[in-house]
Amino acid sequence: MAASSYDAALARLLVHEGGYSNHPADPGGPTNFGITIYDYRKYVKPEASAADVKAMKVEEAKAIYRAKYWGAQRCDELPAGVDYAVFDYGVNSGIGRSGKVLRRALKLTDGSGVVSDAVIAAARAADAKALIVAICDERLRFLQSLKTWGVFGKGWGARVADVKAFSLALAARAAAGLSTDIVAPRSANGAAQQMGKGVVPTPKGAQQGSAATIAAAGAAAATQAHQSGASAGLVAAIMVAGVAAASAAYAFWHWRQQWKQQQPA
């Protein structure tokens, strides 16, 4: 696709991403237009709530998609069809994974997930259709390996099949010298299905471990202070400090999980 086709690519992607959801099995948490609350806080409103995500404007989502996914993966420079396959994969499973898979399909196995000048040159020299098939087939195998496949598998499978077919159609049009700035109609199954992010979820125990440990330590300290005759004010202060530390620990943990999901597969 050319640089001017970003809007068409995003319109196609939004067919799959749909609107607001907050599925308990989705590691992305409250999500709208495929944008998680964590990305909305990073790019738009630092203290955003689930309600803010639900009220998100599509223009805000478009700006985030361009900055975090389309631009970061240099989709304007990739061959027609390959750009869309990589873009959609990055949105659903993180640009670290999509970039790494693109490199692997091009046999550039240096361990990086960055779409570099070498990656762009190799992608332009490759058979676009074969590259699209390799990317989409690996994507489906990865999604099928996730524990959340049983919850989101039907939607994920339909999405990958649709992305593969549409990307191949774009590549064919480009090879024939036709415009690729098009948006195919919705899939035959109608409106988009709500689906979670295709990332490796963190075990629930690991999510709660650090914060729970700190909170428990704070409670124990407060109990000990109370038993030793400390004033009610001091005990309250200890409890407040414990809660603050637990909240900070959880915030740091979640930031690190989001960072890890963007790293190469």
Low-pLDDT stretches:
187-193, 204-213, 252-264
Mean pLDDT over the full residue set: 79
Helix content: 55-70%
Shape: globular
Kindly give the count of domains.
2
CATH C-level category of the largest domain: Mainly Alpha
Query: What is the rounded distance between the termini?
Result: 26 Å
Q: Give the full name of the CATH homologous superfamily of the largest domain.
A: Chitosanase, subunit A, domain 1
| CATH fold-level label of the largest domain | Chitosanase, subunit A, domain 1
Q: Based on DSSP secondary structure assignment, what is the total number of beta strands? A: 2
**H/E element sequence:** HEEHHHHHHHHHH
Strand content: under 5%
Q: In the CATH classification, which architecture of the largest domain applies? A: Up-down Bundle
Structural class, please? mainly alpha
Sheet with most strands: strand arrangement: 1-2
Radius of gyration: 22 Å
Main sheet properties: 2 strands, antiparallel
- The helix count comes to 11
What does this structure look like?
There is one protein chain. The protein contains 11 helices and 2 strands, in the order αββαααααααααα. By secondary structure, the protein is mainly α. The chain folds into 2 domains: 3-175, Chitosanase, subunit A, domain 1, CATH 1.20.141; 204-261. It has a two-stranded antiparallel ribbon. Helix 6 (95-105) crosses helix 8. It is globular. The model is unreliable at 187-193, 204-213 and 252-264 (pLDDT under 50).
